[in-house]
Design a protein that fits this description.
The protein has 119 residues and is mostly helical. The chain contains three helices and no strands. The chain has a domain of 46 residues. α2 packs across α3.
Protein backbone atom coordinates (compact mmCIF):
# COMPACT_ATOMS: atom_id res chain seq x y z
CA UNK A 1 0.00 0.00 0.00
CA UNK A 2 1.19 3.48 -0.77
CA UNK A 3 1.10 6.28 1.73
CA UNK A 4 -0.41 9.61 0.81
CA UNK A 5 1.33 12.79 1.83
CA UNK A 6 -0.65 14.80 4.31
CA UNK A 7 -0.29 18.58 4.33
CA UNK A 8 1.73 19.97 7.22
CA UNK A 9 -0.08 22.28 9.56
CA UNK A 10 0.98 24.77 12.15
CA UNK A 11 4.22 25.84 10.54
CA UNK A 12 6.32 28.73 11.72
CA UNK A 13 4.65 32.11 11.26
CA UNK A 14 6.05 34.39 8.57
CA UNK A 15 8.24 37.24 9.79
CA UNK A 16 9.42 40.04 7.57
CA UNK A 17 13.13 40.42 6.92
CA UNK A 18 12.62 44.10 7.73
CA UNK A 19 11.32 43.42 11.26
CA UNK A 20 14.69 43.94 13.02
CA UNK A 21 15.25 47.14 11.02
CA UNK A 22 12.00 48.94 11.89
CA UNK A 23 13.81 51.52 14.05
CA UNK A 24 16.26 52.22 11.22
CA UNK A 25 13.40 52.79 8.75
CA UNK A 26 11.60 54.97 11.30
CA UNK A 27 14.72 57.11 11.79
CA UNK A 28 15.11 57.55 8.06
CA UNK A 29 11.48 58.63 7.70
CA UNK A 30 11.99 61.18 10.47
CA UNK A 31 14.94 62.49 8.48
CA UNK A 32 12.53 62.95 5.54
CA UNK A 33 14.17 60.30 3.34
CA UNK A 34 12.15 58.95 0.41
CA UNK A 35 11.22 55.29 0.19
CA UNK A 36 13.65 54.86 -2.69
CA UNK A 37 16.46 56.32 -0.60
CA UNK A 38 15.52 54.04 2.32
CA UNK A 39 15.58 50.98 0.05
CA UNK A 40 19.05 52.04 -1.15
CA UNK A 41 20.27 52.54 2.43
CA UNK A 42 18.95 49.11 3.41
CA UNK A 43 21.01 47.62 0.59
CA UNK A 44 24.22 49.55 1.30
CA UNK A 45 24.16 49.59 5.11
CA UNK A 46 22.23 46.44 6.03
CA UNK A 47 22.77 44.23 2.97
CA UNK A 48 19.03 43.76 2.37
CA UNK A 49 17.96 43.96 -1.27
CA UNK A 50 14.30 45.05 -1.41
CA UNK A 51 12.13 47.05 -3.78
CA UNK A 52 11.20 50.60 -2.86
CA UNK A 53 7.66 49.45 -2.02
CA UNK A 54 8.73 46.83 0.53
CA UNK A 55 9.84 49.25 3.27
CA UNK A 56 6.77 51.42 2.65
CA UNK A 57 4.32 48.52 2.98
CA UNK A 58 6.15 47.06 5.96
CA UNK A 59 6.30 50.44 7.77
CA UNK A 60 2.63 51.29 7.19
CA UNK A 61 1.48 47.80 8.21
CA UNK A 62 3.61 47.91 11.37
CA UNK A 63 2.23 51.32 12.39
CA UNK A 64 -1.34 50.21 11.69
CA UNK A 65 -0.95 47.06 13.77
CA UNK A 66 0.73 48.97 16.59
CA UNK A 67 -2.27 51.31 16.80
CA UNK A 68 -4.71 48.42 17.31
CA UNK A 69 -4.52 46.47 20.56
CA UNK A 70 -3.98 42.78 20.05
CA UNK A 71 -4.72 39.94 22.44
CA UNK A 72 -1.07 38.86 22.25
CA UNK A 73 0.43 42.17 23.30
CA UNK A 74 -2.20 43.24 25.85
CA UNK A 75 -1.29 42.67 29.49
CA UNK A 76 -3.36 40.59 31.89
CA UNK A 77 -5.11 43.57 33.43
CA UNK A 78 -8.66 42.32 33.89
CA UNK A 79 -9.80 45.19 36.12
CA UNK A 80 -9.02 47.97 33.66
CA UNK A 81 -12.55 48.70 32.40
CA UNK A 82 -16.01 47.22 32.93
CA UNK A 83 -17.43 45.20 30.05
CA UNK A 84 -20.29 47.66 29.57
CA UNK A 85 -21.41 50.99 30.92
CA UNK A 86 -23.52 50.78 34.06
CA UNK A 87 -26.46 53.19 33.80
CA UNK A 88 -27.80 54.75 36.97
CA UNK A 89 -31.51 54.98 37.70
CA UNK A 90 -31.31 58.66 38.67
CA UNK A 91 -30.23 59.77 35.24
CA UNK A 92 -32.95 61.75 33.43
CA UNK A 93 -34.14 60.29 30.16
CA UNK A 94 -33.15 62.21 27.08
CA UNK A 95 -36.06 63.69 25.16
CA UNK A 96 -36.39 64.09 21.45
CA UNK A 97 -36.60 67.59 20.09
CA UNK A 98 -40.04 68.57 18.77
CA UNK A 99 -40.66 68.23 15.06
CA UNK A 100 -41.15 71.37 12.99
CA UNK A 101 -44.78 72.23 12.12
CA UNK A 102 -46.14 70.76 8.90
CA UNK A 103 -46.63 73.26 6.08
CA UNK A 104 -50.20 74.05 5.10
CA UNK A 105 -51.18 72.47 1.81
CA UNK A 106 -54.38 73.46 0.05
CA UNK A 107 -55.52 70.90 -2.47
CA UNK A 108 -56.74 72.54 -5.70
CA UNK A 109 -60.44 72.36 -6.48
CA UNK A 110 -60.79 70.80 -9.94
CA UNK A 111 -64.45 71.79 -10.31
CA UNK A 112 -63.53 75.48 -10.48
CA UNK A 113 -60.81 74.95 -13.11
CA UNK A 114 -61.40 75.14 -16.82
CA UNK A 115 -60.45 71.64 -18.00
CA UNK A 116 -61.59 71.98 -21.63
CA UNK A 117 -58.26 73.54 -22.68
CA UNK A 118 -56.26 70.58 -21.34
CA UNK A 119 -55.28 67.97 -23.88
Amino acid sequence: MSETAQPKRGGKAFHSILEPHFDFIHQQRQRRKTWQEIAGLLLTEKGINVTLYAPYRFYRRKLKRAAKPNWENVGNDFQSQPARHIATANRPQSRLSPLPPKPVFNQPNISTKDTENFT
